[in-house]
Amino acid sequence: MAALFCLEEMIDIHCHLLPGLDDGAESLESACAMAEMAIADGITHVIGTPHASERHRFVPELVKQRRDEIQACFEGRLIVATGCDFHLSFENLQDIRQGPERFTLNQKSYLLVEFADFSIPPSLDHALHQLQLAGVKPIVTHPERNPLIRTQPDRLYRWLRQGCYAQITAQSLFGRFGRAAQEIAEQWLDAGAVHFLASDAHDVTSRPPRLKEAFEHVAKNQGEKVARALLVDNPLAAFEGRSLPYVPGLADDAGIENPGPVAPRRRKRFWFF
Fold this sequence. Notes:
The protein has 273 residues and is α/β, with parallel strands linked by helices.
C-alpha cells in the first residue's frame, strides 16, 4: 500500500534541479534527466532550490527563467516551483529584508536555511528569530549532515521549540552521508524532531531525486501516517504556504536532560487538522 501511494503524489521541497546555477544540474539535458527520474519515482511537485551563498550568487530573475525552461518541458507531468538553499550570512540576511518572497519556497512563507559546517555562532539564534518576526518560517536543512549540530543536538531542539522546522535528506536514512548522519536521522525521527524529508538531489547518480524508498522506510518504522506527513502533507502545505498539518511533539526531555548524541526514544505526537 505504501509503495502504491508513493507513486502518486510525493512533493520534493529541496532539489538542485535548475541548470547552471550552482553545483546541481549542469545543463538543461541533465536537469530533464533529473525531472524524468523524479516523475518515475512518484514525485509530482518539485521545488528548485539553488544555493544562495557567497559561492553561488542567487539571482531571482535567472532562477525563474531556468524554472520556466524546465516547466515547459514537463507541463502536465511535473509541477516545478522555485526557492533557494539560503545560507545564513550577513549579506543574505540583509537582502531578505527587502523581500522574503524572492527566497522562500514557491514565494510563500517557508525558507530553507542551511548552516555552515564549521561555525554556528550564538547570534544565529537571534537571526532565526528575526526571520520569524518578518513572517518567514525557517526550515533547517539536513541538520543530520552537519557535524556541529550532530554533536550539539540541543541547539536543534531549541530552534524547533522556537518555532523552526527540520528537513532530513532522504538518502541519509540509507547511509549515503555516513553512519553518524544515518544514526542521528533515525534518532531524530524517533524523538519527533523531523518535519520534512526531501531529496536535496544534485544529479541522477550520486545524489538522485528519489523519495519512494524513504517513504517505504519511514512507513515501515514509524507508520504510514508519519511517512505521508513528511513526504506529502507537510511538503504540500509548505508549497502552498499553509500551516503544517503535522507537527510532531518533541520527546519530553529531548535536548534537556540528555542532550548527547543518543536522543531519548520516548515520543509524543500531535496531529493538527
